[in-house]
Design brief:
434 residues, 8-stranded antiparallel sheet, 5-stranded antiparallel sheet
């Protein structure tokens, strides 16, 4: 008898024949072999933070929650091996206790490490790269039940394909990460004007290590976040607990949930609500451990589409998106987020051999998107936009093959390690081909 699974946002529901929660690598091998014997497909789920039907299956759904923790540490090389199901909010303090940190992080830490890497979670900072670029090795259970360890010296093609691999090449059970010494960030958040921030964006990303801005649609207002790395002797202090509670718990979650519920009931009030939201989150400055600055609590549920475009295209994309929103009957209470990263060499990374600006459009999960996701996709298509693998998009293998220079190599590796497509589902067939 099948059960029901839904993702975090609630926009994807599946009915797997069974949900299996392995407690060891051997359990994963057994589950993969048994599914193959039954003729069932296998998909793997972590926190369910993807907005696409990436893990949906009517076969076996593997939940890797029990595979958690640091497996091995090489302090001399600042490398750790981590069980695939380890949530980022668990991993970050564990690394901190070792005097280490990931070089970059996104702004949500609920994902499991394997899922964050598999979908290309990136963070921000043009002198820095996404989490996948920190991966130095993977251990996978392949379709035939074999366990393989891959890196730059051992089956490098499988390594490069499976790092941001969408779960299409096998079950990742361990990840080796190249860390850096733990570091602190000085965070500066200020309100600003959209036109001024976009015009000065290149100067901002050159001056600061990590830049992130949130534009409130239906207004010209933004919240600008600039994070700069500082020496451990820097006298800066963390934000007071009362301010952290006020901003992160009360305003950004409880109050924001209330505003979104009001917007769902009366969409016409969204422009006024966004004016309020843009003003409530005022200026602040504080210094703290990197992961405490990077990661924020996101309890208000939403749906999201995010595309990577060449950084030079950012002004045009924002102008076209703003013009579309202003000329259509659409209500968007969530801000549009803009970040940038440097290029990497991971075959299916959105940053493969290209520095990007990332533009993310959100909508409250109780509200219709009003056509904005389709309009946004049409805009970025004209700017070589590469979709975030875990966020809403409609691109298929034909278009993606033109956007990713190593796409053909990805398909050839998949043919080699999973010729019967044990790890397939309808969505993977759409984005990677048969």
């Amino acid at each position: 008898m099948s059960t029901t699974w839904s993702n975090w946002a609630g926009n994807v529901t599946a009915h797997p024949a069974r949900i299996v929660e392995p407690r060891s690598v051997e359990d994963v091998v057994e589950a993969v072999k048994e599914a193959a014997d039954r003729g069932e497909h296998v998909r793997v789920v972590g926190a369910g933070h993807s907005f696409t039907p990436l893990v949906a299956t009517d076969g076996t759904l593997l939940r890797l929650t029990a595979l958690s923790g640091i497996v091995d540490v090489d302090l001399a090389r600042q490398r750790v091996r981590v069980a695939a199901g380890t949530p980022l909010h668990v991993l970050n303090p564990l690394l901190d206790g070792l005097g280490l940190a990931l070089p970059n992080l996104g702004d949500i830490d609920r994902q499991g490490i394997a899922g964050a890497i598999a979908t290309g979670t990136h963070g921000t900072g043009v002198r820095h790269r996404g989490i996948a670029a920190a991966v130095t090795g993977l251990t996978l259970v392949l379709a035939d039940g074999s366990v393989v360890a891959v890196d730059d010296s051992h089956d490098p093609d499988l390594f490069r394909a499976a790092t941001v691999g969408l779960g299409a090449f096998g079950v990742v059970v361990e990840v080796e990460l190249q860390c850096v010494p733990a570091f602190r960030l000085r965070a500066l958040e200020t309100p600003g004007r959209l036109d001024e921030v976009v015009e000065g964006y290149e100067d901002l990303v050159a001056e600061h290590d990590h830049v992130d801005f949130h534009w409130f649609p239906h207004t010209g207002r933004v919240l600008l976040k600039r994070n700069s790395r500082v020496d451990h002797a820097d006298p800066g202090r963390p934000q007071p607990r009362w301010r952290e509670w006020l901003d992160e718990d009360l305003l950004s979650n409880k109050v924001f949930e209330g505003l979104n519920r009001a917007a769902a009931a009366r969409p016409s009030i969204v422009p006024r609500l966004n004016q309020v939201s843009a003003r409530v989150l005022g200026a602040k400055e504080y210094t703290d451990t990197s992961w405490r600055v990077f990661c924020t609590s996101r309890d208000v549920r939403f749906r999201e589409s995010e595309y990577a475009v060449p950084r030079a295209s950012l002004p045009a994309v924002i102008a076209e998106l703003r013009a579309w929103i202003d000329s259509h009957d659409v209500s968007l209470p969530f801000p549009v987020e803009v970040r940038s990263t440097g290029a990497d060499d991971v075959w299916l990374s959105t940053a493969y051999e290209r520095e990007n600006a990332y533009v993310a459009v959100h909508q409250y999960y109780r509200m219709d998107d009003g056509g904005v996701f389709a309009a946004f996709e049409a805009i970025v298509r004209e700017h070589e936009g590469r979709p975030h693998w875990g966020k809403l998009h409609t691109l298929g293998a034909g278009e993606l093959g033109r956007l990713y220079p190593r796409f053909g190599d990805v398909q050839r590796v998949r043919d080699r390690v999973d010729p019967e497509r044990l790890f397939a589902n309808a969505h993977l067939t759409h984005v990677l081909g048969e």
